Amino acid sequence: MAPIMACSSTASSSRAAGPGAALPGCDAGDTPSGETIQAELAATAAERARGLMFRPVLDAAKGMLFLFDTSNIYLFWMLNTLVPLDILWMNEDREVQFISADTPPCQTQVCPTYGPNIASRYVLELAAGEAQRRGLAEGDVLQW
């Protein structure tokens, strides 16, 4: 298992993040490389819609964890995202099912979508190159 740290994007928020995990602020852990990722939570429709848009930089130790209420096919686009990202889709068991590495920002109003054609429940966005640098791969199970 490869734990990450997940923190609410709103200070007063406390949300369940899936099987057996309540987040009264943050939960900490390490990736296979032994480093911690601090991930903002995107649990509401508004938080998920905004994602990491308009941010000029994403620190290597940070990311965003998208929490969906149900498993479904969730495709992402990079409209108004200013930095390339690694995007990891996970199933109900938090197992990484698909990685879109070095996903480029969209420079036009018509943007391609990224993601697997399989159901996911969680999506983690990291700075481009971080998934590989941290040893994250399909089949890994993340913990938070």
How would the blueprint of this fold be written?
Elements: E1 2-3, E2 5-8, E3 15-16, E4 22-23, E5 26-27, E6 38-42, H1 45-50, E7 62-72, E8 76-77, E9 85-90, E10 96-103, E11 113-114, E12 120-127, H2 130-133, E13 142-143
Parallel strand pairs: 1-13, 2-6, 6-7
Antiparallel strand pairs: 2-5, 3-4, 7-12, 8-11, 9-10, 9-12
Task: Explain what this protein looks like in three dimensions.
Helices cover 7% and strands 39% of the residues. It is built from 2 helices and 13 strands, in the order E-E-E-E-E-E-H-E-E-E-E-E-E-H-E. A 7-stranded mixed beta sheet has the order 5-2-6-7-12-9-10. It has a two-stranded parallel sheet with strand order 1-13. A two-stranded antiparallel sheet has the order 3-4. A hairpin with a 5-residue loop joins strand 3 and strand 4 (22-23). The model is unreliable at 8-29 (pLDDT under 50).
